[in-house]
Amino acid sequence: MTSTKPPPLASPASAPAAALHGGTSDPRTLILRNLRQSGIYIAFVVIVALFAFLTDGVLLSPGNITNIVLQYSYILVLAIGMVIVIIAGHIDLSVGSVVALTGAVSAVLVIQQGFPWWIGVAAALAVGVAVGAWHGFWVAYVGMPAFIVTLAGMLLFRGLTLQVLDNISLSPFPSEYQKVASGFLNGLLGGQGYDAFTLFIAAFAVIGYAISVFRTRLARIRYQQSVESFPLFVTRVLLVGAVVMYFAWQLANARGLPIVLIILAVLVIAYGLMTRSTVFGRQIYAIGGNLSAATLSGVKVRKVNFWIFVNMGLLAGVAGVIYSSRSNGAQPAAGNMFELDAIAAAFIGGAAVAGGVGTVVGAMVGGLIMAVMSNGMQLMGIDQSTQSVVKGLVLLLAVAFDIYNKRRAGATR
Protein backbone atom coordinates (compact mmCIF):
# COMPACT_ATOMS: atom_id res chain seq x y z
CA MET A 1 0.00 0.00 0.00
CA THR A 2 1.58 3.20 -1.14
CA SER A 3 0.86 6.51 0.47
CA THR A 4 0.59 9.64 -1.55
CA LYS A 5 1.42 12.99 -0.15
CA PRO A 6 -0.86 15.90 -0.94
CA PRO A 7 0.68 18.54 -3.15
CA PRO A 8 2.34 21.30 -1.15
CA LEU A 9 0.29 24.41 -0.65
CA ALA A 10 1.62 27.63 -2.07
CA SER A 11 3.12 29.77 0.62
CA PRO A 12 1.84 33.32 1.08
CA ALA A 13 5.20 34.60 -0.02
CA SER A 14 5.03 32.73 -3.31
CA ALA A 15 1.67 34.21 -4.26
CA PRO A 16 2.86 37.80 -4.42
CA ALA A 17 5.93 36.62 -6.31
CA ALA A 18 3.72 35.06 -8.94
CA ALA A 19 1.41 38.05 -8.99
CA LEU A 20 4.41 40.30 -9.45
CA HIS A 21 4.75 38.85 -12.92
CA GLY A 22 1.06 38.70 -13.73
CA GLY A 23 0.40 35.35 -12.06
CA THR A 24 2.10 33.34 -14.79
CA SER A 25 5.58 32.53 -16.01
CA ASP A 26 4.62 32.19 -19.67
CA PRO A 27 6.60 34.92 -21.49
CA ARG A 28 4.02 35.28 -24.24
CA THR A 29 1.20 35.82 -21.74
CA LEU A 30 3.35 38.29 -19.81
CA ILE A 31 4.02 40.31 -22.94
CA LEU A 32 0.34 40.42 -23.89
CA ARG A 33 -0.73 41.55 -20.41
CA ASN A 34 2.02 44.13 -20.12
CA LEU A 35 1.21 45.44 -23.58
CA ARG A 36 -2.46 45.84 -22.66
CA GLN A 37 -1.64 47.67 -19.43
CA SER A 38 1.13 49.95 -20.73
CA GLY A 39 0.71 49.96 -24.50
CA ILE A 40 -1.35 53.17 -24.48
CA TYR A 41 1.48 55.08 -22.81
CA ILE A 42 4.00 53.75 -25.32
CA ALA A 43 1.67 54.68 -28.17
CA PHE A 44 1.28 58.20 -26.79
CA VAL A 45 5.04 58.76 -26.59
CA VAL A 46 5.54 57.37 -30.10
CA ILE A 47 2.81 59.61 -31.56
CA VAL A 48 4.21 62.71 -29.81
CA ALA A 49 7.72 61.91 -31.07
CA LEU A 50 6.43 61.29 -34.60
CA PHE A 51 4.55 64.58 -34.89
CA ALA A 52 7.36 66.47 -33.18
CA PHE A 53 9.66 65.21 -35.93
CA LEU A 54 7.15 65.90 -38.72
CA THR A 55 6.54 69.47 -37.49
CA ASP A 56 10.24 70.24 -36.89
CA GLY A 57 9.66 70.56 -33.14
CA VAL A 58 6.81 73.07 -33.37
CA LEU A 59 4.44 70.58 -31.72
CA LEU A 60 6.47 70.69 -28.49
CA SER A 61 7.05 74.42 -28.43
CA PRO A 62 5.83 76.17 -25.24
CA GLY A 63 3.16 78.16 -27.04
CA ASN A 64 1.76 75.19 -28.92
CA ILE A 65 1.59 72.95 -25.85
CA THR A 66 -0.37 75.68 -24.10
CA ASN A 67 -2.71 75.86 -27.09
CA ILE A 68 -3.29 72.09 -26.98
CA VAL A 69 -4.37 72.35 -23.34
CA LEU A 70 -6.72 75.25 -24.05
CA GLN A 71 -8.19 73.84 -27.26
CA TYR A 72 -8.93 70.27 -26.14
CA SER A 73 -9.64 70.62 -22.42
CA TYR A 74 -13.42 70.33 -22.86
CA ILE A 75 -13.02 67.06 -24.78
CA LEU A 76 -10.93 65.66 -21.93
CA VAL A 77 -13.62 66.68 -19.43
CA LEU A 78 -16.24 64.89 -21.52
CA ALA A 79 -13.97 61.83 -21.79
CA ILE A 80 -13.95 61.47 -17.99
CA GLY A 81 -17.72 61.12 -17.90
CA MET A 82 -17.87 59.07 -21.08
CA VAL A 83 -15.43 56.41 -19.89
CA ILE A 84 -17.55 55.90 -16.75
CA VAL A 85 -20.67 55.52 -18.92
CA ILE A 86 -18.85 53.03 -21.17
CA ILE A 87 -17.47 51.03 -18.22
CA ALA A 88 -21.06 50.52 -17.09
CA GLY A 89 -21.93 49.16 -20.54
CA HIS A 90 -23.76 52.23 -21.90
CA ILE A 91 -23.09 55.04 -24.36
CA ASP A 92 -24.05 58.73 -24.48
CA LEU A 93 -24.56 60.36 -27.88
CA SER A 94 -26.00 63.61 -26.56
CA VAL A 95 -23.03 65.28 -24.85
CA GLY A 96 -22.24 67.59 -27.77
CA SER A 97 -25.79 68.95 -27.75
CA VAL A 98 -25.69 69.30 -23.95
CA VAL A 99 -22.45 71.30 -24.23
CA ALA A 100 -24.24 73.63 -26.66
CA LEU A 101 -27.34 73.94 -24.47
CA THR A 102 -25.46 74.65 -21.23
CA GLY A 103 -23.30 77.25 -22.95
CA ALA A 104 -26.40 78.84 -24.46
CA VAL A 105 -28.17 79.10 -21.09
CA SER A 106 -25.08 80.67 -19.55
CA ALA A 107 -24.79 83.17 -22.42
CA VAL A 108 -28.43 84.24 -22.20
CA LEU A 109 -28.16 84.88 -18.46
CA VAL A 110 -24.77 86.61 -18.48
CA ILE A 111 -24.70 88.41 -21.84
CA GLN A 112 -28.36 89.14 -22.52
CA GLN A 113 -29.74 89.59 -19.01
CA GLY A 114 -26.65 90.94 -17.27
CA PHE A 115 -26.34 88.43 -14.42
CA PRO A 116 -22.94 87.94 -12.75
CA TRP A 117 -20.63 85.48 -14.50
CA TRP A 118 -20.85 82.92 -11.71
CA ILE A 119 -24.63 82.78 -12.07
CA GLY A 120 -24.10 81.67 -15.65
CA VAL A 121 -21.67 78.97 -14.54
CA ALA A 122 -24.06 77.69 -11.87
CA ALA A 123 -26.98 77.68 -14.30
CA ALA A 124 -24.98 75.74 -16.89
CA LEU A 125 -24.07 73.09 -14.32
CA ALA A 126 -27.67 72.88 -13.11
CA VAL A 127 -28.95 72.38 -16.66
CA GLY A 128 -26.35 69.67 -17.20
CA VAL A 129 -27.47 67.85 -14.05
CA ALA A 130 -31.13 68.14 -15.12
CA VAL A 131 -30.32 66.69 -18.54
CA GLY A 132 -28.39 63.84 -16.91
CA ALA A 133 -31.34 63.10 -14.62
CA TRP A 134 -33.65 63.06 -17.66
CA HIS A 135 -31.46 60.49 -19.41
CA GLY A 136 -30.94 58.50 -16.22
CA PHE A 137 -34.68 58.22 -15.63
CA TRP A 138 -35.37 56.71 -19.05
CA VAL A 139 -32.37 54.38 -18.96
CA ALA A 140 -32.48 53.25 -15.32
CA TYR A 141 -36.16 53.27 -14.41
CA VAL A 142 -37.97 52.87 -17.73
CA GLY A 143 -35.40 50.40 -19.07
CA MET A 144 -34.76 51.95 -22.47
CA PRO A 145 -31.34 51.41 -24.10
CA ALA A 146 -28.98 54.31 -23.49
CA PHE A 147 -28.19 54.45 -27.21
CA ILE A 148 -31.81 55.29 -28.05
CA VAL A 149 -32.34 57.64 -25.11
CA THR A 150 -29.23 59.71 -25.78
CA LEU A 151 -29.80 59.68 -29.55
CA ALA A 152 -33.17 61.25 -28.86
CA GLY A 153 -31.47 63.61 -26.43
CA MET A 154 -28.98 64.67 -29.08
CA LEU A 155 -31.86 65.88 -31.26
CA LEU A 156 -33.96 67.23 -28.39
CA PHE A 157 -31.27 69.35 -26.75
CA ARG A 158 -29.90 70.62 -30.04
CA GLY A 159 -33.37 71.89 -30.80
CA LEU A 160 -33.63 73.48 -27.35
CA THR A 161 -30.29 75.19 -27.96
CA LEU A 162 -31.66 76.78 -31.12
CA GLN A 163 -34.73 77.96 -29.20
CA VAL A 164 -32.74 79.36 -26.28
CA LEU A 165 -30.43 81.29 -28.59
CA ASP A 166 -33.24 82.16 -31.03
CA ASN A 167 -30.97 80.88 -33.83
CA ILE A 168 -28.34 83.58 -33.23
CA SER A 169 -24.90 83.66 -31.61
CA LEU A 170 -24.28 85.60 -28.40
CA SER A 171 -20.99 87.25 -27.41
CA PRO A 172 -18.87 88.47 -25.70
CA PHE A 173 -18.68 87.18 -22.15
CA PRO A 174 -17.20 89.36 -19.39
CA SER A 175 -13.48 88.97 -18.72
CA GLU A 176 -14.05 86.96 -15.52
CA TYR A 177 -15.98 84.32 -17.43
CA GLN A 178 -13.33 84.17 -20.16
CA LYS A 179 -10.65 83.39 -17.58
CA VAL A 180 -12.24 80.00 -16.87
CA ALA A 181 -10.76 78.64 -20.11
CA SER A 182 -8.17 81.29 -21.02
CA GLY A 183 -6.77 82.48 -17.68
CA PHE A 184 -3.36 81.59 -16.19
CA LEU A 185 -1.75 81.39 -12.77
CA ASN A 186 1.85 82.61 -12.87
CA GLY A 187 4.37 84.53 -10.85
CA LEU A 188 3.24 83.08 -7.50
CA LEU A 189 6.68 81.60 -6.74
CA GLY A 190 8.81 83.65 -9.08
CA GLY A 191 11.42 82.09 -11.39
CA GLN A 192 14.16 83.33 -13.69
CA GLY A 193 12.41 83.51 -17.04
CA TYR A 194 9.96 80.73 -16.13
CA ASP A 195 7.06 80.17 -13.75
CA ALA A 196 8.28 78.18 -10.73
CA PHE A 197 4.72 77.63 -9.48
CA THR A 198 3.90 75.55 -12.56
CA LEU A 199 6.94 73.33 -11.98
CA PHE A 200 6.10 72.92 -8.29
CA ILE A 201 2.54 71.81 -9.05
CA ALA A 202 3.80 69.37 -11.71
CA ALA A 203 6.37 67.84 -9.36
CA PHE A 204 3.73 67.45 -6.66
CA ALA A 205 1.44 65.73 -9.18
CA VAL A 206 4.17 63.32 -10.32
CA ILE A 207 4.97 62.32 -6.73
CA GLY A 208 1.28 61.79 -6.00
CA TYR A 209 0.89 59.71 -9.15
CA ALA A 210 3.88 57.51 -8.27
CA ILE A 211 2.59 56.87 -4.74
CA SER A 212 -0.92 56.13 -6.01
CA VAL A 213 0.09 53.59 -8.66
CA PHE A 214 2.55 51.91 -6.30
CA ARG A 215 -0.15 51.47 -3.65
CA THR A 216 -2.50 50.12 -6.30
CA ARG A 217 0.15 47.65 -7.39
CA LEU A 218 0.72 46.44 -3.82
CA ALA A 219 -3.02 46.00 -3.32
CA ARG A 220 -3.29 43.89 -6.46
CA ILE A 221 -0.36 41.75 -5.39
CA ARG A 222 -1.98 41.15 -2.01
CA TYR A 223 -5.10 39.87 -3.74
CA GLN A 224 -3.02 37.84 -6.22
CA GLN A 225 -4.21 39.82 -9.22
CA SER A 226 -2.15 40.13 -12.38
CA VAL A 227 0.14 43.13 -12.62
CA GLU A 228 2.79 44.22 -15.08
CA SER A 229 6.41 43.23 -14.49
CA PHE A 230 8.29 45.43 -12.03
CA PRO A 231 10.83 46.79 -14.55
CA LEU A 232 8.02 47.78 -16.88
CA PHE A 233 6.14 49.34 -13.96
CA VAL A 234 9.16 51.47 -13.00
CA THR A 235 9.71 52.41 -16.63
CA ARG A 236 6.09 53.51 -16.96
CA VAL A 237 6.23 55.67 -13.83
CA LEU A 238 9.51 57.29 -14.90
CA LEU A 239 8.19 57.85 -18.40
CA VAL A 240 4.98 59.47 -17.17
CA GLY A 241 6.99 61.63 -14.76
CA ALA A 242 9.38 62.74 -17.49
CA VAL A 243 6.53 63.58 -19.87
CA VAL A 244 4.65 65.56 -17.20
CA MET A 245 7.74 67.52 -16.13
CA TYR A 246 8.68 68.31 -19.73
CA PHE A 247 5.11 69.38 -20.38
CA ALA A 248 5.21 71.58 -17.25
CA TRP A 249 8.55 73.09 -18.25
CA GLN A 250 7.10 74.14 -21.59
CA LEU A 251 4.07 75.68 -19.87
CA ALA A 252 6.33 77.45 -17.37
CA ASN A 253 8.26 79.01 -20.23
CA ALA A 254 5.06 80.17 -21.95
CA ARG A 255 2.27 81.81 -19.96
CA GLY A 256 2.27 79.72 -16.81
CA LEU A 257 -0.31 77.29 -15.47
CA PRO A 258 -3.68 77.43 -17.26
CA ILE A 259 -6.66 77.63 -14.91
CA VAL A 260 -8.50 75.09 -17.04
CA LEU A 261 -5.65 72.62 -16.49
CA ILE A 262 -6.16 72.95 -12.72
CA ILE A 263 -9.87 72.23 -13.19
CA LEU A 264 -9.04 69.20 -15.32
CA ALA A 265 -6.46 67.91 -12.83
CA VAL A 266 -8.93 68.15 -9.95
CA LEU A 267 -11.51 66.22 -11.97
CA VAL A 268 -9.02 63.51 -12.96
CA ILE A 269 -7.86 63.01 -9.37
CA ALA A 270 -11.39 63.02 -7.96
CA TYR A 271 -12.84 60.62 -10.52
CA GLY A 272 -9.75 58.42 -10.46
CA LEU A 273 -10.20 57.96 -6.72
CA MET A 274 -13.93 57.46 -7.12
CA THR A 275 -13.59 54.67 -9.69
CA ARG A 276 -10.77 52.89 -7.84
CA SER A 277 -11.50 53.37 -4.15
CA THR A 278 -15.23 53.75 -3.56
CA VAL A 279 -18.16 51.35 -3.41
CA PHE A 280 -19.91 53.30 -6.15
CA GLY A 281 -16.90 52.95 -8.43
CA ARG A 282 -16.67 49.20 -7.88
CA GLN A 283 -20.39 48.88 -8.56
CA ILE A 284 -19.92 50.62 -11.93
CA TYR A 285 -17.32 48.03 -12.94
CA ALA A 286 -19.52 45.22 -11.62
CA ILE A 287 -22.51 46.33 -13.69
CA GLY A 288 -20.45 46.60 -16.85
CA GLY A 289 -18.57 43.36 -16.25
CA ASN A 290 -21.54 41.13 -15.44
CA LEU A 291 -24.95 42.68 -14.96
CA SER A 292 -26.61 39.49 -13.69
CA ALA A 293 -23.90 38.85 -11.12
CA ALA A 294 -24.03 42.48 -9.97
CA THR A 295 -27.78 42.26 -9.50
CA LEU A 296 -27.53 39.00 -7.55
CA SER A 297 -24.78 40.54 -5.39
CA GLY A 298 -27.15 43.23 -4.19
CA VAL A 299 -25.99 46.13 -6.37
CA LYS A 300 -28.80 48.62 -6.85
CA VAL A 301 -28.38 48.70 -10.59
CA ARG A 302 -31.10 51.24 -11.33
CA LYS A 303 -29.80 53.72 -8.80
CA VAL A 304 -26.20 53.38 -10.01
CA ASN A 305 -27.20 53.77 -13.67
CA PHE A 306 -29.24 56.86 -12.82
CA TRP A 307 -26.32 58.58 -11.10
CA ILE A 308 -23.94 57.61 -13.87
CA PHE A 309 -25.97 59.69 -16.32
CA VAL A 310 -26.45 62.52 -13.82
CA ASN A 311 -22.67 62.63 -13.52
CA MET A 312 -22.30 62.66 -17.30
CA GLY A 313 -24.70 65.59 -17.50
CA LEU A 314 -22.75 67.48 -14.82
CA LEU A 315 -19.47 67.02 -16.69
CA ALA A 316 -21.14 68.06 -19.95
CA GLY A 317 -22.16 71.24 -18.13
CA VAL A 318 -18.54 71.80 -17.05
CA ALA A 319 -17.41 71.25 -20.64
CA GLY A 320 -20.11 73.66 -21.84
CA VAL A 321 -18.77 76.39 -19.54
CA ILE A 322 -15.19 75.76 -20.66
CA TYR A 323 -16.10 75.73 -24.36
CA SER A 324 -18.25 78.86 -24.21
CA SER A 325 -15.51 80.59 -22.20
CA ARG A 326 -12.89 79.52 -24.73
CA SER A 327 -14.96 80.68 -27.71
CA ASN A 328 -16.13 83.80 -25.81
CA GLY A 329 -19.73 83.21 -26.75
CA ALA A 330 -22.46 80.70 -27.50
CA GLN A 331 -23.35 79.42 -30.96
CA PRO A 332 -26.23 77.21 -32.14
CA ALA A 333 -23.76 74.75 -33.71
CA ALA A 334 -21.47 74.52 -30.67
CA GLY A 335 -20.45 71.04 -29.54
CA ASN A 336 -20.96 69.44 -32.94
CA MET A 337 -19.37 65.93 -32.97
CA PHE A 338 -17.95 66.34 -29.44
CA GLU A 339 -19.59 63.08 -28.41
CA LEU A 340 -17.59 61.16 -31.00
CA ASP A 341 -14.31 62.67 -29.81
CA ALA A 342 -15.14 61.75 -26.21
CA ILE A 343 -16.13 58.20 -27.17
CA ALA A 344 -12.95 57.82 -29.24
CA ALA A 345 -10.82 59.03 -26.32
CA ALA A 346 -12.37 56.42 -24.01
CA PHE A 347 -11.90 53.53 -26.45
CA ILE A 348 -8.39 54.52 -27.49
CA GLY A 349 -7.57 54.79 -23.79
CA GLY A 350 -8.41 51.13 -23.21
CA ALA A 351 -12.14 51.02 -22.44
CA ALA A 352 -13.82 47.82 -23.60
CA VAL A 353 -16.75 47.89 -25.98
CA ALA A 354 -18.72 45.44 -23.84
CA GLY A 355 -18.10 47.40 -20.63
CA GLY A 356 -16.41 46.50 -17.36
CA VAL A 357 -12.96 47.74 -18.43
CA GLY A 358 -11.45 51.21 -18.56
CA THR A 359 -9.78 53.90 -16.46
CA VAL A 360 -10.02 57.66 -16.15
CA VAL A 361 -6.28 58.03 -16.72
CA GLY A 362 -6.51 55.85 -19.81
CA ALA A 363 -9.29 58.05 -21.20
CA MET A 364 -7.10 61.11 -20.58
CA VAL A 365 -4.22 59.54 -22.49
CA GLY A 366 -6.59 58.55 -25.29
CA GLY A 367 -7.91 62.10 -25.43
CA LEU A 368 -4.37 63.49 -25.53
CA ILE A 369 -3.52 61.14 -28.39
CA MET A 370 -6.48 62.53 -30.35
CA ALA A 371 -5.46 66.09 -29.43
CA VAL A 372 -1.83 65.60 -30.47
CA MET A 373 -2.86 64.00 -33.76
CA SER A 374 -5.34 66.79 -34.55
CA ASN A 375 -2.90 69.54 -33.60
CA GLY A 376 -0.01 67.90 -35.42
CA MET A 377 -1.97 67.45 -38.63
CA GLN A 378 -3.16 71.06 -38.44
CA LEU A 379 0.43 72.24 -38.09
CA MET A 380 1.34 70.15 -41.13
CA GLY A 381 -1.46 71.74 -43.14
CA ILE A 382 -3.38 68.51 -43.67
CA ASP A 383 -6.98 69.12 -44.73
CA GLN A 384 -9.92 68.32 -42.48
CA SER A 385 -11.14 65.37 -44.55
CA THR A 386 -7.81 63.56 -44.21
CA GLN A 387 -7.77 64.28 -40.48
CA SER A 388 -11.16 62.59 -40.14
CA VAL A 389 -9.91 59.55 -42.04
CA VAL A 390 -6.87 59.22 -39.76
CA LYS A 391 -8.94 59.60 -36.58
CA GLY A 392 -11.41 56.99 -37.81
CA LEU A 393 -8.64 54.51 -38.55
CA VAL A 394 -7.02 55.05 -35.15
CA LEU A 395 -10.34 54.42 -33.39
CA LEU A 396 -10.95 51.30 -35.46
CA LEU A 397 -7.49 49.93 -34.68
CA ALA A 398 -7.91 50.66 -30.96
CA VAL A 399 -11.15 48.67 -30.75
CA ALA A 400 -9.67 45.89 -32.91
CA PHE A 401 -6.71 45.71 -30.52
CA ASP A 402 -9.08 45.34 -27.57
CA ILE A 403 -10.95 42.49 -29.27
CA TYR A 404 -7.67 40.81 -30.23
CA ASN A 405 -6.42 40.97 -26.65
CA LYS A 406 -9.63 39.43 -25.33
CA ARG A 407 -9.42 36.54 -27.79
CA ARG A 408 -5.77 35.89 -26.96
CA ALA A 409 -6.52 36.04 -23.24
CA GLY A 410 -9.30 33.48 -23.70
CA ALA A 411 -7.04 31.23 -25.76
CA THR A 412 -4.28 31.19 -23.14
CA ARG A 413 -6.55 30.16 -20.25
From TrEMBL:
InterPro entries: ABC_transp_permease (IPR001851)
GO cellular component labels: plasma membrane
TM helices/strands, residue ranges: 40-62, 68-88, 93-111, 117-139, 146-165, 196-218, 230-249, 255-274, 304-323, 343-372
Membrane among keywords: yes
Keywords per UniProt: Cell inner membrane, Cell membrane, Membrane, Sugar transport, Transmembrane, Transmembrane helix, Transport
Compositionally biased intervals (Low complexity): 11-20
Cellular compartments annotated: Cell membrane
Ranges annotated as biased composition (Pro residues): 1-10
Source organism, top-level taxon: Bacteria
Keyword Cell inner membrane recorded: yes
Residue ranges, annotated region (Disordered): 1-22
Membrane topology: Multi-pass membrane protein
One function term, GO molecular function aspect: transmembrane transporter activity
Primary role: Part of the binding-protein-dependent transport system for D-xylose. Probably responsible for the translocation of the substrate across the membrane.
Name of this protein: Xylose transport system permease protein XylH
Lineage start: Bacteria, Bacillati, Actinomycetota, Actinomycetes, Micromonosporales
